[in-house]
Amino acid sequence: MRIVFIGPPGAGKGTQCRRLSAHYTIPHLSTGEMLRKASRDTPVGRVVGAYIDNGQLAPDPLVMRIVRKRLQRNDCRRGSLFDGFPRTVIQSELLDEHLSAMGQKVDIVLDLQVKEAELVERLLARAEVEGRDDDTAETIQRRLHVFRTQTAPVLDYYAGRGLIEQIDGQRTADEVFDEICDRIDTRLRNQEPG
Ligand code: ADP
Question: Is the CATH code 3.40.50.300 the one for domain 2-191?
């Protein structure tokens, strides 16, 4: 089973993905984490770090290179949970191409919805606790703008394929988790075998 998890920054994707990954025993692929790691470890990566700290997206070819490499690992054979990816329509198209070459596909796309005012509040609170360099008031606004302009069209892309499940993210983490599991289990039951 391949799940794409989309939501604006601060919606709670990371928290839900960690739980979902354990519950369905599929690997959690967070491009944000992969890029942050790359930005510490390699010279090319340090260029990427500048995009992230600015609240802009990393370049599509670089993101795709990292994801393709990760998908080659054995643990991805039974499925994967994509967190924060694809973030542009081009990434969605390239992911579809890559998966279909392996006889695979995206099965479900979770659209985690939270109002902007709430997102800003949550991100500013996270900034105090975690001190992530991209959680400043100015960068938060830029990331929300990037989400509206570049990532929201990804939802339209998958809506056209009937894959979207809209989830209300403005509830407790437990309630959100239960609802997501319900939606996934219903889809699994209704899927054609194979
Ligand atoms: P959040 O969704 O809370 O902003 P993430 O950890 O998912 O946090 O992403 C942090 C940053 O990493 C993004 O603002 C962006 O710069 C970069 N990034 C993550 N995923 C992608 C992607 N698929 N394409 C391009 N850039 C990405």
Answer: yes
